[in-house]
Amino acid sequence: MELTNIGTIKDLFARHGFSFSKTLGQNFLINPTVCPNIAERGGCEAGVCALEIGTGVGVLTRELAKRCDKVVAIEIDERLKPILAETLSEFDNTEVIFADVMEVDLAAVIAEKFGGKETVVCANLPYYITSPVIMKVLESRLDIKAMTVMVQREAAERICAKCGTRECGAITYAVNYYSAPQTLFRVNRGSFMPAPNVDSAVIRLDIKNERALPEDEEKMVFRIIRAGFSQRRKQLVNPLSAELGVSKTEIAELLTNLDLKSTARAEELSLNDYIEIAKSM
Question: How confident is the model at residue 209 (pLDDT cuts 50, 70, 90)?
Fold first, then answer.
C-alpha cells in the first residue's frame, strides 16, 4: 500500500469518510523518502522498540514496524481507527492507543509494552504542540535512547541552536539539559498534503540518562531560564529580581561573583551559567 501516493490517500479517505482536521494540525506526508529516513536515522532496528506519537494514516508507523521488534503509537484522532486498521493490517507488531499524548503515562506504556527492550521515540508532530510534547517526553525521564521528530523548521533551528547565541530560546536550554540535539535533514512543505505554509526539519535528541542536578536545583534552573527569556531584551537582573523577589543589586552581585556580566541578557549565558546561578540562590 503506497500511503504516500495522493491517489491512494484520497481513495482511503473517501472510503472511510475522513476529512482533515485543522484543529489537530493534520498534514500527512506524501514524500516517500522522509519516513524511511526518520526510521533509519532514529535508531530503529532489530531488538529495538518504538513509541510513535501521532500516526496520521500510518506512513511512519509502517516504516517503524518494518525495522523494530514492536511499535506502539499514540493517536488522538479516533476517526483514524478504521483507516489504521486497514493500513497496518499486515503488521502484527503494531498497536495503536487512541488517547491524548499529553494525558498518557508514557513511562507506564513503555514499561508495560516493551519489557525493558531498548526504546526510541519517533514522531511527526503538529506544529501547535511541538514544544509541549518534546518537553513532556524529556521531563518524564523515559527509559529511551533517543527521540527523533519532525517539527517546523523554525522550531528545529531554535531547539538545535547553540546555547548563548541570539538564535536560542528557553527551550534550547531545556532540551540541551536533557539531551544532545542535532538537525538531521530538512523537509519542504510540498512533502505534505495539505501543504503547510512553512518548511519542516527532522531533529534527533539523544537522551542523557544521568540527572545532572538534584530535583529541587533542577526546578530552580528552569525557573530562572524561563524568567530570563520572558523578557529576553532586558538585562537579566530585571526579570530575575521580579521572579525571585531579590533586589537587582543582589542579582548583579551574584552574576559578578560568578564572573558574569551584571548587564548580561538571557541569551548570553551558557547552560552551565544558569546551573551555577541556581546553585547560588
Answer: confident
Single-letter amino acid code for the residue at 16: H
Of 183, 207, 231, the position where a domain reaches its end is: 207
Taking each helix axis as running N to C, give the angle between helix 59-67 and helix 34-41, from 0 to 180 degrees, rounded to the nearest 10.
Answer: 40
- For 159, the grid coordinates are 531547539
**What's phi and psi for 115, nearest 5 deg?**
55, 40
Q: In this structure, what are the phi and psi dihedrals at residue 107, rounded to the nearest 5 degrees?
A: -60, -40
Phi, psi angles (nearest 5°) of residue 3: -80, -5
* Residue 26 scores a pLDDT above 80: no
**49 within some domain:** yes
Q: Provide the residue range defining the domain that includes 199.
A: 6-207
Sheet with 200-207: list strands edge to edge: 94-98, 70-75, 48-53, 118-124, 146-152, 200-207, 179-187
* CA pair distance 244, 251, nearest whole angstrom: 10
91 and 160 share one domain? yes
In this structure, the answer to whether residues 24 and 149 fall within a common structural domain is yes
State the pTM of this model: 0.92
271-280 and 170-178 helices cross at what angle (nearest 10)?
90
pLDDT tens per residue across span 104-158: 999 999 999 999 999 999 999 888 899 999 999 999 999 999 999 999 999 999 9
Q: Are 145 and 256 members of one domain?
A: no
Question: Looking at the domain assignment, is residue 74 inside a domain?
Answer: yes
- Same domain for 222 and 93: no
